[in-house]
Amino acid sequence: MSLDVPTALLERAEAGRIDDADFVDCVRRSLPYAWSVVADVAARATAARGPADHAVPPPSEAERGQLLRALASDAIRGALERHFGVRLAFQNCHRVAAFPPELAGGVAHREFVSPLAQIRNQSPELRNC
């Protein structure tokens, strides 16, 4: 399961009444490793007014799974981008980058998400991630 949803939040969702703050808090509590990685790259990108990335492999498969769940879900990824005010990019099961919104679609962003960058960042030890 991607998220650990409290009963009260599930009940509000079933009634059609949750907001981004409720959802983001659920993500933060459910996926703490992914949250910490995204919070870090977002803070660095915002401070530098430029791209920032995280390229350290997670300490375990559980943490790798958190990153995959957070960044593969349109809803989770979108909520994280809105919350932190950045555009996220993801590659190789653990490499996460954040771009200030005005740089999304720019040269550095296009390069990071390009097939060429994906191939260049492959290695035998990353094939099973």
How would you summarize this macromolecular structure in one to three sentences?
By secondary structure, this protein is mainly α. It has one domain (32-126).
Architecture overview:
By secondary structure, the chain is mostly helical. The chain has one domain. 55% of the residues lie in helices and 10% in strands. It contains 7 helices and 3 strands. It has helices spanning 7-14, 20-30, 32-48, 61-72, 74-84, 107-112, 115-120; strands at residues 52-54, 87-91, 95-99. Strands 1-3-2 form a 3-stranded antiparallel β-sheet, with helices on one face. α2 (20-30) crosses α3 and α3 (32-48) packs across α4. The longest helix is centred in the N-terminal third of the chain and has 17 residues, at 32-48. The radius of gyration is 15 Å and the shape is globular. The mean pLDDT is 89.
How many β-strand stretches? 3
How does the helix and strand content classify structurally? mainly alpha
Q: How much helicity do the residues have?
A: 55-70%
Tertiary shape: globular
State the strand order across the main sheet: 1-3-2
Number of domains: 1
**How do the helices and strands follow one another from N- to C-terminus?**
HHHEHHEEHH
User: Main beta sheet: strand number and arrangement?
Assistant: 3 strands, antiparallel
Distance between the termini: 19 Å
Strand composition percent: 5-15%
Radius of gyration in whole Å, from Cα?
15 Å
- Total helices: the number is 7
Mean pLDDT, to the nearest integer, reads: 89
